[in-house]
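Figure 2 data, in text form.
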Amino acid sequence: MLKSNNALNTRQITILVILRIAIGWHFLYEGITKVLNPNWSSIGYLMDSKGCLSGIFHSMAQHAAVLAFADFMNQWGLILIGLGLIIGCLTRIAAYSGMLLLAMYYLSHPPLIGLSYAIPSEGSYLIVDKVFIEFFAMWVLALIPTGIYFGLDRLICKSNY
């Protein structure tokens, strides 16, 4: 019979903090590379969408103001989410925000049979891809408050957990 124990041990906390920082680095680096590239735009990605919501993504790409807003939110959202995860500040908000961003990426380019994209993928996927996996890893981070163990959340948010 399984023993019920809600407390995390030091090794579990350590690996979850490492996971949080690694995902944070991924988000931060992706955001920084987009900000530093003056030619970067999400237009190609949006126009390449073939998911069930492709009409919405295509429409976003066709309206300059909406595209500019989407680009800004993508760039700075990635940076702020990454920083929040790395330093453990508002980690729950950062994780849920990251999940929202990842859900948009997934819905724009779902790995389904019969769909091919202009941007080559790193492998062959069916339903589960790296975006899907990172989404669920972020969900774990949203549910387990690692920032109160190692991060600024320990100072500013402990009463919320």
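Caption note: Helices lie at 10-36, 43-47, 54-62, 64-87, 91-108, 130-143, 153-156.
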